[in-house]
């Protein structure tokens, strides 16, 4: 079972590999993705990390507010996408 964490306030240059490497230091990471602008392809400054369900709450608590490449991260459990 996995859970997805929202990660905000990322530096623009962050790649999904950078995000995976950072979170892997603290827990079992399944995968990650950086959200990019459709038109420019530029990072929007946030992404998602898929982690083992057992690690999700602990990782969100430990890494929320932690420093990553000079920025203070916002980390919390991702909410399901809402449809209209």
Widest sheet: strand order? 2-3-1-6
Number of E-type strands: 6
> SSE order in H/E notation?
EHEEHEEE
Helix content: 10-25%
| Class based on secondary structure composition and strand pairing | alpha+beta
Could you say which overall geometry the principal axes of the C-alpha atoms support?
globular
Q: Strand portion, in percent?
A: 35-45%
Radius of gyration computed on alpha carbons: 12 Å
Distance between the termini: 27 Å
* Tally of DSSP helical segments: 2
Largest sheet: 4 strands, antiparallel
Relevant terms:
24% helix, 6 strands, alpha+beta, single chain, 84 residues
Structure notes:
This protein has 84 residues and is an alpha+beta fold. 24% of the residues lie in helices and 39% in strands. It has 2 helices and 6 strands. The chain has helices spanning 16-24, 53-63; strands at residues 2-8, 29-36, 43-52, 67-68, 71-72, 74-77. The chain has a 4-stranded antiparallel β-sheet with strand order 2-3-1-6. Strands 4-5 form a two-stranded antiparallel ribbon. The relative contact order is 0.31. The model has no long low-confidence stretch (mean pLDDT 94).
